[in-house]
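Support request, priority: normal
Reporter: lab tech (M.K.)
Component: structure prediction queue

Hi team, I submitted a job for LrgA family protein from Geothrix limicola yesterday, and the status page still shows it as pending. I've pasted the exact input below so you can check whether something in the sequence is tripping the parser. The sequence length should be 154 residues. Please let me know if I need to resubmit or if it's stuck on your end.
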Amino acid sequence: MNGPAEEPPPPPIDSEPEGTSALTLHPGLRALVQVLGLVALWWAADQAARGLHLPIPGSVLALGALVLLLHTGLLPLAWIKEGADWLLAEMLLFFIPAVVAVVQYPSVILKAGWQLLVVILVGTVAVMVGTALVVERVFRWERRLRLRQGGDPR
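Reply from support: The job had stalled in the queue. We restarted it manually and it finished. Here are the results:
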């Protein structure tokens, strides 16, 4: 029985489009170049936000540009994956200044510690709830797209 021709499965999300390749450098150097590229994108977006007097920070503008570039395929994920993975793995280093501030100013912690704790807890809960809502909406949106295309709704 000959059914309709099945389409080949889509490529993995981190595969490179044909005709492109990740930098052929040593992996550590490649990650550094990718991080520098992300920093350059942030810097350019920050300069644009300041120059155009936009009401949003350049970092948010850069994140939006990055999502748009990835979504349209103009920037293959493989071109930034190692650098982004390294940044995520070393994220704790970016919080060291906050820890040093706590150690250097114990009087502030003793005086306003409960207020800081409330702010931290409320902020954490807000981020978790916001992330959950966004993820849920994206899952529903992807499911609707798959249903429209006649694919598996899972």
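The chain has a mean pLDDT of 82. The helical segments are 27-51, 58-72, 81-89, 96-104, 106-148. Let us know if anything else looks off. Ticket resolved.
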